[in-house]
Each structure stands twice: as structure tokens, then as C-alpha cells.
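haha ok so turns out i had the wrong file open the whole time. this is the CORRECT one, sorry everyone. sequence first:
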Amino acid sequence: MSTPTVGTAPATDPTPTKGLAIGKLGLWGSTVIGIASTAPLFSLAATLGYVIIAVGAQAPVAFILAFVPMLFTAFAYRELNNAVPDCGTVFTWAAKAFGPRTGWMAGWSIAVAGVLVMANLAEIASVYLLTLIGDGSLAENRLIVTGFGCVIIAVMTWVSLRGVEIGERMQQVLLVIQYLAMAAFVVGCLIGFFGGSAPDPTPVSLDWFNPFLADGTGMVQAILLALFIYWGWDTCLALTEETKDPRRTPGRAATLTTVILLVTYVGITVVAMMYAGLGDTGTGLANEAHADDVFTVLAGMAMGPFGWFLVIAVAISALSSSQTTILPTARGTFAMGVYQALPARFAKVSEASKTPTFSTTLVGVIAIVYYAGMNLVSTDVLADSLLSMGLAIAFFYAIASFACVWYFRSTLFASRRNFFYRLVFPLLGGLFMTWAFVQSAIDMLDPDYGYSQLAGVGGAFIVGIGSLLLGVVLMFVWALFPGSRDYFQKRSLNRDTEVLAPE
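then structure:
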């Protein structure tokens, strides 16, 4: 093991680095990991029904409207990455723009989101895979489900420790399976629609893309639901130092990822609506009985005997995302260790695989402990933790957007390009993410929101806000230790700190 020191590198390499593998990912590999991180098939399966219940026929435009602020945020990420290509992403950028405490909280919120989603993805993958075994009784045994979920996290952590190239190759295979399944579903739906076998054939209408025909409150709910299924594209930026041409490729991959996701989400939504219709009974997409997984109900009808392939692909989608989620989470805490925002052991790198060892292992261990603990306490709280994840995501996306504006404040009006890509778009993205955070927090306060409550407050609010407040406490505790002084006194990381990424 070796512990990188800020500003230093082996004598044979004049470029300062953190010790990560250099130039392992190209545009394609980076994009694959970005798409896989979003778990596109599972995300759409778990969200589409609720979006249609909230907004009806205007579901396609809800996904489009949710994409816009994500694209604006992606522009902010791209601009910041071009100037500061660092695996710490928002942690590093916020610390440079606003100072150490804002940076620390940004890094903490990324870690929180990663752990929460890993636990829930492990649960989903475990249940789906066990359902396909035998008569389904295994999926109803909480002990077996929890044990298998813990094994899934452990295996994905091990894969992440083996090196980014191994993870990339695995993700390519898993992503191909997901898109083959989605393509087969689309073909089956279209054949059913044009062949007359669809349960409720519904012709495409331009009204589906008119947001003014939807109920205002419903559209707000739909956009908030759709917004967070785009999350994951920023994994491209967390791997920036392991990517070829780190100043440009990760930003391009992030933008390409969001566009591919937009086409995927809108395209499948339209096709599903054409095939199953918008009814609230039977196979209708607005039927609350199967709103949490619309594809399982439609797979057998649209794909016939190959319907099982779509069910497996949903499990693979969750499995794939659980591995890619480890990457940005571990590299975020790794960067915090490098810059002394966390103890030095977080900065340890394997000499063989060039991956953060302690950070990756700790992320996996914490996810296993949290997942197993929540299953012992209450599966309702575990489900609420997934709902609360949006707060952490909106929090660090807003910080990244505002950091872009403030970091580049001296050049905002130097050109038309700077004006739009460093001021207008990031500012709009930051304002939208701030609104999403506040509105989501207000919604989560309702005791009827989610699956649990405590003292008249929704469990999702308690988990979401509580986890961020825990970060504030831990930040001040760490600030009491001598090892943190260089960071909090802006010596190890400030606006002028040298970028530790290879050209």
C-alpha cells in the first residue's frame, strides 16, 4: 500500500498524481459506467407508474422537463472538470470555490447518497434474483434476502478493488443485457400496438408533450420523481483521473450519458403508453397496484415466453448500479483523505490495482452494516432511505452548480460561451436543485409520505435531513484533530492548490 502526498510524485514522473491508474478509460468506457450508474431499466421500472399517476398523459414531457436542470448541472460539472479534473469532484470544487466546510459537506452528501442507494439496490437485486429461483419462497425469507444482499455488496466491492478496467468490462456486458431487454420490450410493445394484441392501444398524441395540459401540483410531483432517476451520470467525473484526456473526456461522457438517458426514458415511456394505456385498472400504467414495477406486469404480455429476460435485466440493472455507485463514493472519500479532510488512511492506494483500498473497502462495509441493520430494524425505514436520497443528491448538485458560477466569477462575461455555460446554465441548474431540495423536504415532512414515521414526521425526512446533520457533527469532530488543520486552514486545499491529475 502507498499513501499519496499532495503535490508529490515519483521522481520518474514529473506530473503530480494521487496514485490512481492513468488513462484506463476512453469516451466509450466512461459513458458506459455513467449510464450503468443510473440503473436505467430499474429506475424507469420503479418510477414510470408513479409519474403517470401524478401527471397522466403528460409523463413524457415530465421526463423531458426533469432532464433540463440535469443537463444544466452537467454543464457546470464539465466546466469545473475542464479547470480542475479531480476525482473528488464536488468536494474539491466546492472547497476551492467556497471554502473547506462547504467542500466537506459536499463530499459527505455524496457519500451519504452512495451508501443509501447501495443498500437499496442490493435489496432489489437480491429479491429479484431470488424470485427467479424456485417457487419464490426464498424472496419472502428476510434472513435469506438480507444475507444474499450483503453478499452482493461484498462481491461488487471486491470487483471495484480489482481495478477500474475490470469493472468497465463487466459493466459493458451488463449494460448490453439491459439494453437488449429494453429493445425486446419496445419491439414487443410495437408489435402488439400495430398488430391489435395490445391490452389498451393508445395512439401517440402531441398532447403528451404539452406540460400546460397537466395539473400543476401533479407536474411538480412528476418532475421531482423523474429528476433523480438521471442521477449517476456524474460517476464519469469521479473517474476523471483514470480517464484518457481527463480535462475533456469525462465532461463529454457526462453530457452524452444524460442525452442517452433522456432518449431511453422518453422513448420507452411513449412505447409503454401506446401498448398499455393510461387506465387505473388491470394492466393500465396508472394502476397503483403495480406502480412500483410496471415492467414485471407487462413483460409476459409484450414479450411472450421471453418475458423472464426483462425481469432478469431489471435485477441486473440494480446489480450493475450497485458496483458503479461504489466508484464515485470511494473516490470522493479518497480525495478527502488526500487533501486531509479525512484521516490519511482514506488516501491509501493499491500498488497493484491502483484503486483506493481503504476508501473502497470502508464504503462496502458501511453499506453492508447499514443494509443489514435496517433490515433488522425495519424494512420500511430502508425503503424510506431510498426516498430520502434525493435530498443528498439535490444538495451536492446545487453546490456544484453554484460553485461553477463562483469559481469562474472573474471570467463570466469574457465571452458569450462563458456567459451561458459558466453563469446562466449553472445558475439555473443550481436554483432548480435548491427548489427540488426544499420542495422534497417539505413533502417528506408529511407523515403519510413514504413508509414510516416518527413523532408525526415522515421517516424519509428524518433519514434525509438527519444524515446531512450527522455530517455537520462529524465535520466539527474531525476539525478537533490535529490532522485536519491543514485542510480547515486552507493549506492542503485552496483555490490555488495544484491539480493532482495527469495531463
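Residues 100-131 form the longest helix (32 residues).
again sry for the mixup
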